[in-house]
Design a protein that fits this description.
By secondary structure, the chain is an alpha+beta fold. The chain contains six helices and five strands, in the order αββαβββαααα. Strands 1-2-3-5-4 form a five-stranded mixed sheet. α2 crosses α3, α3 packs across α4 and α4 runs parallel beside α6.
Length: 196
Amino acid sequence: MRTLIAMMIAAGIATSATAEDGVEVTVDESSPAMHMIIGKQKVWATPAFEDYMYMFFDLCDAMELKVGEECQIYPMNAEIGLNALATEQNGNRLILYDRRLSAEVGGEGAQMIIAHELGHHYCGHLGKHGDASLELEADRFAAAAMRKAGMSLDAAMSVLPILSERPSKSHPGREARVAAIKAGWENPETGKDCRK
C-alpha cells in the first residue's frame, strides 16, 4: 500500500507545482465540481495526510476499483469552508477535504465523506450541477463502500451531524439521504449501479 501511495504522489499534478508541494485549485461555477463553494475561489490544496490516503485506497480496494484507472484520483486537504468536493483541474481528478470536518464527524465520518466524493468521480457526476439525485447516488455508493470495507451502518451514518434537515437546490434533505445510505449499506452490490 505504501508503494502505491508513493507512486500516486510521485506522479504529481499537471500544474507548475507538484502534488508533494501542493497545488492551487480554482473553483467557481464553471468548474467541473460537485459541492461547490460560494463564488470563485482559489484554494491551496496539499496532499492528504497518510490516514486519509489509507482511507481512500481502502475504499478503492473495497469497491474493487482499478488504481490506475477508476482510482487515479488525488485526495487533497484544503480549507474549503468545512466542506468536501470532487473536482478536476488540468486533467487531474481531485478530492478536496477540509480536515476540520473530522471534528464534526470523527474518523468514520471522514471515511464516509471521502467515499461520497469518490462516488461522484466513479459515477461521472462532475459538471452536472443542480441535480440533487446525484447526491443520493453518491450516498448509496459511499455506504456500499463502507459496508464492503467492513464498516458498520452506524459508521456510515456518522455523517448525520453535517447533513441538513431541509433540501436545497443541490442537496436532498436529511431523510432522503439517510434512506440512500441505508439502501447502499444494506445492498452493497448496488453501489456501482450509478453507471448503468
